[in-house]
Amino acid sequence: MTEAWLPHSRGVSSPERGGGRPRGKSFLLTRKGDKETGRSPQDQTPSKKVGKVTADRILTWTPTAVVFDCDGTLMDTERHWQEARRQVLREYGVTPGTEFSERAKGIHYTDCGRLLAETAGRPELTGKMTDELLESFRSLVAEDPVTAPGAVEMVALAHEFAPLAVASNCPRDVVETCLDTAGLLLYFDHVVVPGEGMPPKPAPDLYLSAAEACGADPAECLAVEDSLCGIRSAVRAGMRVVGVGPRPDEESAALVDLWVPSLGEPRLVAWAESRPAIPEGASGSTSPRVVPPRGSSPGDAATPAARPGETGPGEGSPGTAP
After folding, report:
1. Strands 240-244 and 65-68, sheet pairing
2. pTM for the whole thing?
3. What pLDDT does residue 8 have?
4. DSSP string over 46-74
């Protein structure tokens, strides 16, 4: 039986939703709940690992809503952001290193534009370099929109048991185009992006707004993230978090509840398959849901008369460059 270090236990969910901590696999870590600490979500910091439990306890919980990040989580676009950043810096005679890539991952694209200008030693060109970054990224995504491993199946499975939302730092048009091309957009009730009065990750606002749109308590929501920036955002919102990607850095490992190498990880898939389905008409979402028939692929889903509900500003609103 797999074992993992964990910081602290959190409050358990209600018995009706399969409360308590499940049992899972890989880097399974639980963290101290907001109510236990008495601090606001924004003040949460990683706790020291003080105990050891079996890893199986994560995967018996059923969330009331699931909120996915897009870049690097649902779509394999982080490589496009990396290439876009390289292309921009190359025009200024700069080759980005590993440290730059880590600093840039997951941050809002305007922040990334500032970082590019700072790295190139041309702070006066921040606006120009930000525009160049977005133009390059959009071009790369249009040429090669690819879903992340396991994303299509996981979204289809999660759609059966909870309302779904996307919380992304990227511009709305980029998020929607990527998801639509992949046949995933129809599964989501809400797309939440930064805009006026809605700061980007790592602030908790995107995740809090997504939970509200889904009619769910953030403490009963699951966030799925691949970057430390996004993980911090979800934790500050009070959500449980599944991290996705290669072995996490120390802070990410301390914050997430579960870390998996991909959304196709067998025990994560088995968990999603075993969740009780939402009774027809019982969704807590504030908008209609599109429910493709069981067994059909996302690309086979019929186009609805009305688009799924959305939260946040319209197209062209600020978003991220990881």
Report:
1. unpaired
2. 0.69
3. 30
4. PPPP-EEEETTBGGG---SEEEE--BTTT
Distance CA 171, CA 115 (A): 18
78 to 6, 115, 237, 244, 302: CA distances (angstroms): 29, 17, 24, 13, 29
Instruction: Assess contact for 158 and 164: CB atoms under 8 A.
Output: yes
User: What is the C-alpha to C-alpha distance for residues 271 and 68, in angstroms, rounded to an integer?
Assistant: 17
Average pLDDT over residues 56-80: 88
Nearest Cα neighbor of 10 from 182, 239, 237 is 239
Coil, helix or strand at residue 22 = coil
Nearest 5°: the CA angle 50, 54, 57 is: 105
Report the relative pairing of strands 3-6 and 51-54 from DSSP bridges. antiparallel
Cα 284 to Cα 79, 100, 186, 216: the distances in Å are 35, 41, 17, 7
pLDDT score of 203 more than 50: yes
Q: Which CATH superfamily is domain 3-8+22-32+61-73+147-321 in?
A: HAD superfamily/HAD-like (3.40.50.1000)
Q: Which amino acid is at 29?
A: L
Query: For residues 62 and 73, what is the distance between their CA atoms, to the nearest angstrom?
Result: 20
Tokens of 19: 């409360």
Terminal-residue alpha carbon distance, the chain:
36
| Paired sense of beta strands 164-167 and 3-6, if any | unpaired
Q: In angstroms, what CA-CA distances link 278 with 44, 93, 159, 241, 251?
A: 32, 54, 9, 21, 34
More confident residue, 3 or 241: 241
- Cα(108)–Cα(171) distance, rounded to whole angstroms? 9
Cα 319 from Cα 194, distance rounded (Å): 6
How do the domains of the chain map onto residue ranges?
3-8+22-32+61-73+147-321, 78-143
Neighbours of 253 (CB within 10 A): 21
